[in-house]
From TrEMBL:
It is a multi-pass membrane protein. It comes from Breznakia pachnodae. It comes from the Bacteria. Its EC number is 2.7.1.107, 2.7.1.66. This is Undecaprenol kinase/diacylglycerol kinase (ATP). InterPro entries: DAGK (IPR000829), DAGK_sf (IPR036945).
Length: 114
């Protein structure tokens, strides 16, 4: 039980670190603004669940991207095309997640407006 609690405390520390990262903070602020915007519409429970899942997908992608960036800065701080590819790949993951989240948001809000 003590070990399990310790593992949770490490994980919460990780979340705390993520919430201090500039890129993660930006995504969290965008997510909160989007949720405020969506609250003006009469959304069903399922629609809220889908939107929250999309927000979670983008935040988790950003957290993974930050992990990759920090890892690369630690193991290979020098300029290198391979590091560039890895970091751009990570940024691409966030972009792809954001694109699909935006698409789903537009579909849900579009269906309400129409
Ligand atoms: N060591 C490197 N070698 C080659 N290119 C790099 C290297 N580090 C970064 N880059 C390029 O610069 C871009 C930005 O990298 P950086 O690590 O500054 O990310 P960032 O998104 O600006 O992160 P943050 O602002 O959160 O620190 C990368 O996507 C990559 O194209």
């Amino acid at each position: 039980m003590k070990q399990l609690l310790a593992k949770f405390s490490y994980a919460f520390r990780g979340v705390g670190l993520a919430l201090k990262d500039k890129s993660v903070i930006v995504q969290v602020v965008i997510m909160l603004l989007a949720l405020v915007f969506f609250s003006f519409f009469d959304l069903s429970l399922i629609e809220w669940c889908v939107l929250l899942m999309c927000c979670g997908m983008v935040i988790v992608a950003e957290m993974f991207n930050t992990v990759i960036e920090r890892m690369m800065n630690f193991i290979h701080p020098e300029c290198d095309d391979r590091v560039r590819d890895i970091k751009d790949f990570g940024a691409g993951v966030v972009l792809a997640a954001s694109f699909f989240a935006l698409l789903i948001g537009i579909l849900i809000i579009g269906s309400k407006i129409i």
